[in-house]
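Support request, please re-run this one:
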Amino acid sequence: MSQEKFRNENVVLDIHEKPGTIHWFGLSLQHLFTMFGATVLVPILVGLNPGIALVTSGIGTLLYIAITKGKIPAYLGSSFAFITPMILVIEKGGYPAAFQGALYAGLVYWVVALVIKLIGSDWLDKVLPPIVVGPVVMVIGLSLSGTAATQAMYEHATAAPENYNVTYILIALATLAITIVCNMYLKGFLSLIPILIGIVGGYILSLAFGIVDLSGVQEAAWFQVPKFEIPFLSYKPAFSLAALATMAPIAFVTMSEHIGHLMVLNKITERNFFKKPGLSRTLFADGAATVVASLLGGPPATSYGENIGVLALTKVHSVFVIGGAATLAILFGFVGKVSAVILSIPGPVIGGISFLLFGVIASSGLRILIDNKINFDEKRNLIIASVILVIGIGGAYFQFGSLTLSGMSLATVVGIVLNLILPKKAQSEIEHEAKA
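Re-run finished. Output below.
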Protein backbone atom coordinates (compact mmCIF):
# COMPACT_ATOMS: atom_id res chain seq x y z
CA MET A 1 0.00 0.00 0.00
CA SER A 2 1.38 3.45 -0.87
CA GLN A 3 2.25 5.90 1.85
CA GLU A 4 -0.37 8.32 0.55
CA LYS A 5 -3.16 5.78 1.26
CA PHE A 6 -1.64 4.30 4.40
CA ARG A 7 -3.06 5.50 7.70
CA ASN A 8 -1.32 4.56 10.94
CA GLU A 9 -4.19 3.49 13.19
CA ASN A 10 -2.01 3.70 16.31
CA VAL A 11 -1.73 7.49 16.26
CA VAL A 12 -4.00 10.41 17.07
CA LEU A 13 -3.03 12.44 14.01
CA ASP A 14 -1.12 10.90 11.13
CA ILE A 15 1.39 12.72 8.95
CA HIS A 16 -1.03 14.33 6.49
CA GLU A 17 -3.84 15.12 8.94
CA LYS A 18 -4.58 18.65 10.13
CA PRO A 19 -5.59 19.49 13.70
CA GLY A 20 -8.21 22.12 14.50
CA THR A 21 -6.99 25.71 14.62
CA ILE A 22 -6.85 26.09 18.42
CA HIS A 23 -5.36 22.63 18.89
CA TRP A 24 -2.92 23.33 16.06
CA PHE A 25 -1.47 26.34 17.92
CA GLY A 26 -1.04 24.43 21.19
CA LEU A 27 0.56 21.40 19.54
CA SER A 28 2.96 23.57 17.52
CA LEU A 29 3.84 25.66 20.56
CA GLN A 30 4.74 22.44 22.38
CA HIS A 31 7.27 21.58 19.67
CA LEU A 32 8.63 25.13 19.73
CA PHE A 33 9.21 25.01 23.48
CA THR A 34 10.89 21.63 23.16
CA MET A 35 13.48 22.71 20.62
CA PHE A 36 13.89 26.37 21.62
CA GLY A 37 16.61 26.00 24.25
CA ALA A 38 18.95 23.91 22.09
CA THR A 39 18.38 26.00 18.96
CA VAL A 40 19.31 29.30 20.62
CA LEU A 41 22.10 27.80 22.76
CA VAL A 42 24.29 27.06 19.73
CA PRO A 43 24.39 30.67 18.46
CA ILE A 44 24.93 31.94 22.01
CA LEU A 45 27.97 29.68 22.40
CA VAL A 46 29.54 30.79 19.11
CA GLY A 47 28.52 34.45 19.38
CA LEU A 48 25.73 34.59 16.78
CA ASN A 49 22.33 36.24 17.05
CA PRO A 50 19.80 33.81 18.63
CA GLY A 51 16.98 35.57 16.76
CA ILE A 52 18.58 34.68 13.44
CA ALA A 53 18.95 31.05 14.56
CA LEU A 54 15.22 30.93 15.33
CA VAL A 55 14.30 32.40 11.96
CA THR A 56 16.68 30.16 10.00
CA SER A 57 15.52 27.05 11.88
CA GLY A 58 11.93 27.89 10.95
CA ILE A 59 12.77 28.61 7.32
CA GLY A 60 14.96 25.50 7.13
CA THR A 61 12.19 23.29 8.55
CA LEU A 62 9.58 24.66 6.13
CA LEU A 63 12.04 24.16 3.27
CA TYR A 64 12.70 20.59 4.44
CA ILE A 65 8.97 19.86 4.57
CA ALA A 66 8.50 21.29 1.06
CA ILE A 67 11.41 19.38 -0.50
CA THR A 68 10.36 16.09 1.11
CA LYS A 69 6.81 16.69 -0.19
CA GLY A 70 5.33 16.94 3.31
CA LYS A 71 6.05 13.27 4.03
CA ILE A 72 8.37 13.60 7.06
CA PRO A 73 7.43 15.30 10.37
CA ALA A 74 10.92 16.49 11.32
CA TYR A 75 12.02 19.77 12.90
CA LEU A 76 15.45 21.18 12.03
CA GLY A 77 17.34 23.33 14.52
CA SER A 78 20.90 24.47 15.23
CA SER A 79 23.48 21.68 15.08
CA PHE A 80 25.72 21.11 18.12
CA ALA A 81 28.24 19.21 15.99
CA PHE A 82 29.43 22.47 14.42
CA ILE A 83 30.03 24.42 17.65
CA THR A 84 33.76 23.70 18.02
CA PRO A 85 34.55 23.94 14.28
CA MET A 86 32.70 27.27 14.05
CA ILE A 87 34.59 28.68 17.03
CA LEU A 88 37.91 27.66 15.43
CA VAL A 89 36.99 29.17 12.07
CA ILE A 90 35.71 32.39 13.65
CA GLU A 91 39.03 32.81 15.49
CA LYS A 92 40.94 32.53 12.21
CA GLY A 93 38.67 34.19 9.66
CA GLY A 94 35.78 35.84 11.49
CA TYR A 95 32.06 35.21 11.10
CA PRO A 96 32.04 35.42 7.27
CA ALA A 97 34.42 32.45 7.19
CA ALA A 98 32.12 30.52 9.54
CA PHE A 99 29.12 31.17 7.30
CA GLN A 100 31.21 30.07 4.33
CA GLY A 101 32.10 26.86 6.17
CA ALA A 102 28.40 26.24 6.84
CA LEU A 103 27.74 26.72 3.13
CA TYR A 104 30.37 24.11 2.27
CA ALA A 105 28.80 21.67 4.73
CA GLY A 106 25.42 22.13 3.04
CA LEU A 107 27.02 21.56 -0.36
CA VAL A 108 28.55 18.29 0.91
CA TYR A 109 25.01 17.15 1.71
CA TRP A 110 23.98 17.92 -1.86
CA VAL A 111 26.91 16.01 -3.36
CA VAL A 112 26.17 12.92 -1.23
CA ALA A 113 22.46 13.23 -2.06
CA LEU A 114 23.33 13.24 -5.78
CA VAL A 115 25.52 10.15 -5.41
CA ILE A 116 22.77 8.27 -3.57
CA LYS A 117 20.27 9.38 -6.22
CA LEU A 118 22.48 7.83 -8.90
CA ILE A 119 23.33 4.54 -7.14
CA GLY A 120 20.12 4.12 -5.11
CA SER A 121 19.69 3.34 -1.41
CA ASP A 122 18.96 -0.40 -1.51
CA TRP A 123 22.36 -0.96 0.12
CA LEU A 124 20.97 0.54 3.33
CA ASP A 125 19.05 -2.64 4.18
CA LYS A 126 22.31 -4.59 4.14
CA VAL A 127 24.40 -1.95 5.87
CA LEU A 128 21.79 -1.07 8.50
CA PRO A 129 19.91 -4.22 9.58
CA PRO A 130 17.85 -4.24 12.83
CA ILE A 131 20.81 -5.44 14.93
CA VAL A 132 22.65 -2.23 14.01
CA VAL A 133 19.67 0.12 13.84
CA GLY A 134 18.18 -0.83 17.22
CA PRO A 135 21.28 -0.15 19.34
CA VAL A 136 22.10 3.01 17.34
CA VAL A 137 18.62 4.39 18.02
CA MET A 138 19.09 3.54 21.70
CA VAL A 139 22.38 5.43 21.66
CA ILE A 140 20.68 8.48 20.15
CA GLY A 141 18.46 8.74 23.22
CA LEU A 142 20.84 7.50 25.92
CA SER A 143 23.84 9.56 24.77
CA LEU A 144 21.78 12.66 25.52
CA SER A 145 20.95 11.47 29.04
CA GLY A 146 24.01 13.18 30.50
CA THR A 147 22.86 16.51 29.09
CA ALA A 148 19.42 16.05 30.63
CA ALA A 149 20.92 15.13 34.02
CA THR A 150 23.28 18.12 33.97
CA GLN A 151 20.42 20.51 33.20
CA ALA A 152 18.34 18.95 35.95
CA MET A 153 20.92 19.08 38.74
CA TYR A 154 23.50 21.81 38.16
CA GLU A 155 23.30 25.59 38.17
CA HIS A 156 25.91 25.82 35.41
CA ALA A 157 26.82 23.65 32.42
CA THR A 158 29.81 22.26 34.34
CA ALA A 159 28.80 19.22 36.36
CA ALA A 160 30.97 20.12 39.35
CA PRO A 161 29.93 19.25 42.93
CA GLU A 162 29.79 22.91 43.93
CA ASN A 163 27.24 23.55 41.16
CA TYR A 164 24.82 20.88 42.42
CA ASN A 165 21.48 22.35 43.50
CA VAL A 166 18.87 20.25 45.32
CA THR A 167 16.16 22.73 44.32
CA TYR A 168 17.01 22.13 40.66
CA ILE A 169 16.63 18.36 40.85
CA LEU A 170 13.36 18.68 42.79
CA ILE A 171 11.95 21.02 40.12
CA ALA A 172 13.16 18.68 37.38
CA LEU A 173 11.46 15.69 39.01
CA ALA A 174 8.29 17.73 39.61
CA THR A 175 8.26 18.78 35.95
CA LEU A 176 8.70 15.14 34.93
CA ALA A 177 5.91 14.06 37.28
CA ILE A 178 3.50 16.69 35.91
CA THR A 179 4.24 15.55 32.36
CA ILE A 180 3.76 11.87 33.18
CA VAL A 181 0.50 12.46 35.07
CA CYS A 182 -0.88 14.60 32.23
CA ASN A 183 0.11 11.99 29.66
CA MET A 184 -1.47 9.14 31.63
CA TYR A 185 -4.61 10.64 33.13
CA LEU A 186 -5.79 13.63 31.08
CA LYS A 187 -8.30 13.20 28.26
CA GLY A 188 -9.05 15.00 25.03
CA PHE A 189 -6.79 17.74 23.74
CA LEU A 190 -4.98 18.16 27.08
CA SER A 191 -3.70 14.58 26.76
CA LEU A 192 -1.91 15.65 23.56
CA ILE A 193 0.09 18.48 25.13
CA PRO A 194 1.60 16.93 28.28
CA ILE A 195 5.03 18.37 27.50
CA LEU A 196 3.67 21.89 27.13
CA ILE A 197 1.74 21.52 30.41
CA GLY A 198 4.84 20.09 32.08
CA ILE A 199 6.99 23.00 30.92
CA VAL A 200 4.41 25.57 32.09
CA GLY A 201 4.04 23.78 35.44
CA GLY A 202 7.79 23.56 35.91
CA TYR A 203 8.18 27.22 34.97
CA ILE A 204 5.61 28.28 37.59
CA LEU A 205 7.44 26.21 40.21
CA SER A 206 10.73 27.81 39.15
CA LEU A 207 9.21 31.26 39.56
CA ALA A 208 8.02 30.30 43.05
CA PHE A 209 11.53 29.17 44.02
CA GLY A 210 13.13 32.26 42.47
CA ILE A 211 15.42 30.56 39.95
CA VAL A 212 14.03 32.28 36.83
CA ASP A 213 16.09 35.18 35.50
CA LEU A 214 13.62 37.70 34.03
CA SER A 215 16.17 40.43 33.33
CA GLY A 216 16.33 39.46 29.68
CA VAL A 217 12.55 39.76 29.37
CA GLN A 218 12.59 43.27 30.84
CA GLU A 219 15.38 44.40 28.51
CA ALA A 220 14.00 42.83 25.33
CA ALA A 221 12.01 44.89 22.86
CA TRP A 222 8.60 43.73 21.69
CA PHE A 223 9.65 43.97 18.06
CA GLN A 224 13.20 43.45 16.88
CA VAL A 225 14.68 42.65 13.49
CA PRO A 226 17.60 40.20 13.70
CA LYS A 227 20.74 41.41 11.95
CA PHE A 228 21.03 39.03 9.02
CA GLU A 229 24.55 38.49 7.65
CA ILE A 230 23.83 38.32 3.91
CA PRO A 231 26.81 37.87 1.55
CA PHE A 232 27.61 40.92 -0.61
CA LEU A 233 25.28 43.00 1.58
CA SER A 234 26.76 42.54 5.05
CA TYR A 235 30.23 41.45 3.92
CA LYS A 236 32.25 40.55 0.83
CA PRO A 237 32.83 36.78 0.59
CA ALA A 238 36.43 35.57 0.23
CA PHE A 239 37.47 31.93 -0.14
CA SER A 240 38.66 30.35 3.11
CA LEU A 241 40.54 27.07 2.93
CA ALA A 242 40.38 26.81 6.72
CA ALA A 243 36.59 27.00 6.62
CA LEU A 244 36.46 24.30 3.95
CA ALA A 245 38.87 21.96 5.74
CA THR A 246 37.38 22.48 9.20
CA MET A 247 33.63 22.49 8.63
CA ALA A 248 32.92 20.51 5.45
CA PRO A 249 33.98 17.13 6.95
CA ILE A 250 31.58 17.64 9.87
CA ALA A 251 28.72 17.18 7.38
CA PHE A 252 29.47 13.44 7.36
CA VAL A 253 28.99 13.38 11.14
CA THR A 254 25.62 15.12 10.98
CA MET A 255 24.61 12.91 8.04
CA SER A 256 24.96 9.87 10.27
CA GLU A 257 22.80 11.72 12.81
CA HIS A 258 20.31 12.43 10.02
CA ILE A 259 20.13 8.73 9.09
CA GLY A 260 19.76 7.75 12.75
CA HIS A 261 16.83 10.12 13.21
CA LEU A 262 15.18 8.75 10.06
CA MET A 263 15.49 5.27 11.57
CA VAL A 264 13.60 6.43 14.64
CA LEU A 265 10.96 8.19 12.55
CA ASN A 266 10.54 5.09 10.39
CA LYS A 267 9.74 3.07 13.49
CA ILE A 268 7.47 5.66 15.11
CA THR A 269 5.44 6.46 11.99
CA GLU A 270 5.47 2.90 10.53
CA ARG A 271 6.92 4.13 7.25
CA ASN A 272 10.17 3.73 5.34
CA PHE A 273 11.47 7.19 4.54
CA PHE A 274 14.64 5.71 3.07
CA LYS A 275 12.43 4.45 0.23
CA LYS A 276 9.90 7.27 0.00
CA PRO A 277 10.60 10.17 -0.33
CA GLY A 278 14.09 8.63 -0.40
CA LEU A 279 17.36 9.27 1.41
CA SER A 280 18.68 11.38 -1.46
CA ARG A 281 15.76 13.79 -1.11
CA THR A 282 15.95 13.98 2.70
CA LEU A 283 19.69 14.66 2.60
CA PHE A 284 19.20 17.30 -0.09
CA ALA A 285 16.53 18.95 2.06
CA ASP A 286 18.74 18.91 5.14
CA GLY A 287 21.57 20.41 3.12
CA ALA A 288 19.24 23.08 1.74
CA ALA A 289 18.33 24.14 5.29
CA THR A 290 22.03 24.54 6.13
CA VAL A 291 22.74 26.45 2.90
CA VAL A 292 19.92 28.91 3.59
CA ALA A 293 21.11 29.35 7.19
CA SER A 294 24.65 30.09 5.98
CA LEU A 295 23.37 32.77 3.58
CA LEU A 296 21.39 34.49 6.35
CA GLY A 297 24.00 34.31 9.09
CA GLY A 298 22.61 31.36 11.05
CA PRO A 299 24.24 28.13 12.29
CA PRO A 300 24.06 24.86 10.29
CA ALA A 301 20.86 22.88 10.76
CA THR A 302 20.09 19.31 11.76
CA SER A 303 17.01 17.29 12.73
CA TYR A 304 16.15 17.30 16.43
CA GLY A 305 15.75 14.23 18.62
CA GLU A 306 13.76 16.29 21.15
CA ASN A 307 10.96 16.83 18.66
CA ILE A 308 11.02 13.18 17.62
CA GLY A 309 10.48 12.36 21.29
CA VAL A 310 7.40 14.60 21.30
CA LEU A 311 6.02 12.75 18.26
CA ALA A 312 6.50 9.38 19.95
CA LEU A 313 5.01 10.47 23.26
CA THR A 314 1.94 12.35 21.99
CA LYS A 315 1.25 10.17 18.90
CA VAL A 316 0.59 13.37 16.95
CA HIS A 317 2.64 12.97 13.76
CA SER A 318 1.07 15.75 11.71
CA VAL A 319 3.53 17.54 9.45
CA PHE A 320 1.23 20.55 9.74
CA VAL A 321 2.01 20.75 13.45
CA ILE A 322 5.74 20.75 12.67
CA GLY A 323 5.16 23.41 10.02
CA GLY A 324 3.23 25.45 12.58
CA ALA A 325 6.15 25.24 15.01
CA ALA A 326 8.48 26.44 12.24
CA THR A 327 6.17 29.38 11.48
CA LEU A 328 6.03 30.32 15.17
CA ALA A 329 9.84 30.16 15.35
CA ILE A 330 10.11 32.65 12.49
CA LEU A 331 7.56 34.99 14.12
CA PHE A 332 9.15 34.74 17.57
CA GLY A 333 12.51 35.56 16.01
CA PHE A 334 11.07 39.05 15.54
CA VAL A 335 9.24 39.27 18.91
CA GLY A 336 11.89 39.96 21.52
CA LYS A 337 9.69 39.65 24.61
CA VAL A 338 8.32 36.23 23.68
CA SER A 339 11.76 34.91 22.75
CA ALA A 340 13.15 36.19 26.04
CA VAL A 341 10.40 34.48 28.06
CA ILE A 342 11.06 31.14 26.39
CA LEU A 343 14.80 31.66 26.77
CA SER A 344 14.27 32.24 30.50
CA ILE A 345 12.94 28.69 31.01
CA PRO A 346 15.48 27.31 33.52
CA GLY A 347 17.60 24.22 32.96
CA PRO A 348 15.84 21.92 35.44
CA VAL A 349 12.53 22.33 33.60
CA ILE A 350 14.11 21.34 30.28
CA GLY A 351 16.08 18.59 32.03
CA GLY A 352 12.94 17.13 33.60
CA ILE A 353 11.19 17.02 30.23
CA SER A 354 14.28 15.56 28.58
CA PHE A 355 14.34 12.62 31.02
CA LEU A 356 11.18 11.42 29.30
CA LEU A 357 11.80 12.56 25.72
CA PHE A 358 15.29 11.07 25.41
CA GLY A 359 14.11 7.90 27.13
CA VAL A 360 11.28 7.50 24.64
CA ILE A 361 13.81 7.60 21.79
CA ALA A 362 15.99 4.97 23.48
CA SER A 363 12.93 2.79 24.06
CA SER A 364 12.14 2.98 20.33
CA GLY A 365 15.50 1.35 19.64
CA LEU A 366 14.74 -1.41 22.14
CA ARG A 367 11.41 -1.96 20.42
CA ILE A 368 13.17 -2.42 17.07
CA LEU A 369 15.17 -5.30 18.56
CA ILE A 370 12.07 -6.85 20.11
CA ASP A 371 9.86 -6.51 17.03
CA ASN A 372 12.53 -8.11 14.84
CA LYS A 373 13.04 -10.90 17.40
CA ILE A 374 16.80 -10.41 17.58
CA ASN A 375 18.32 -13.46 19.26
CA PHE A 376 20.99 -12.44 21.78
CA ASP A 377 21.96 -16.04 22.35
CA GLU A 378 23.85 -15.62 19.08
CA LYS A 379 27.33 -14.24 19.80
CA ARG A 380 27.29 -12.10 16.67
CA ASN A 381 24.23 -10.13 17.76
CA LEU A 382 25.49 -9.80 21.33
CA ILE A 383 28.86 -8.44 20.18
CA ILE A 384 27.43 -5.89 17.73
CA ALA A 385 24.85 -4.50 20.16
CA SER A 386 27.28 -4.40 23.09
CA VAL A 387 29.99 -2.52 21.20
CA ILE A 388 27.57 0.02 19.73
CA LEU A 389 26.00 0.76 23.12
CA VAL A 390 29.25 1.20 25.06
CA ILE A 391 31.04 3.28 22.40
CA GLY A 392 27.99 5.46 21.81
CA ILE A 393 26.98 6.04 25.42
CA GLY A 394 30.54 6.09 26.77
CA GLY A 395 31.49 9.07 24.62
CA ALA A 396 34.41 7.44 22.80
CA TYR A 397 35.68 9.44 19.85
CA PHE A 398 38.10 9.16 16.94
CA GLN A 399 39.90 12.32 15.84
CA PHE A 400 41.96 12.73 12.70
CA GLY A 401 42.87 16.29 11.83
CA SER A 402 39.73 18.41 11.77
CA LEU A 403 37.43 15.40 11.48
CA THR A 404 36.03 13.97 14.69
CA LEU A 405 33.75 10.95 14.96
CA SER A 406 32.24 10.84 18.40
CA GLY A 407 29.44 9.14 20.26
CA MET A 408 26.67 8.05 17.95
CA SER A 409 28.70 8.60 14.76
CA LEU A 410 31.61 6.40 15.81
CA ALA A 411 29.27 3.78 17.27
CA THR A 412 27.33 3.65 13.98
CA VAL A 413 30.48 3.23 11.89
CA VAL A 414 31.86 0.49 14.15
CA GLY A 415 28.48 -1.27 14.21
CA ILE A 416 28.24 -1.24 10.42
CA VAL A 417 31.77 -2.62 10.05
CA LEU A 418 31.14 -5.41 12.58
CA ASN A 419 27.88 -6.33 10.85
CA LEU A 420 29.65 -6.62 7.49
CA ILE A 421 32.71 -8.61 8.62
CA LEU A 422 31.42 -10.92 11.36
CA PRO A 423 30.21 -14.37 10.25
CA LYS A 424 26.62 -15.40 10.86
CA LYS A 425 27.70 -17.97 13.42
CA ALA A 426 30.68 -18.15 15.77
CA GLN A 427 32.88 -21.26 15.37
CA SER A 428 31.77 -22.59 18.77
CA GLU A 429 28.11 -22.22 17.73
CA ILE A 430 28.75 -24.11 14.49
CA GLU A 431 30.46 -26.95 16.40
CA HIS A 432 27.64 -27.04 18.95
CA GLU A 433 24.99 -27.33 16.22
CA ALA A 434 27.01 -30.06 14.50
CA LYS A 435 27.12 -32.13 17.69
CA ALA A 436 23.43 -31.58 18.28
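Strands lie at 76-78, 301-303, 397-400, 403-406. The first strand starts at residue 76 and ends at 78.
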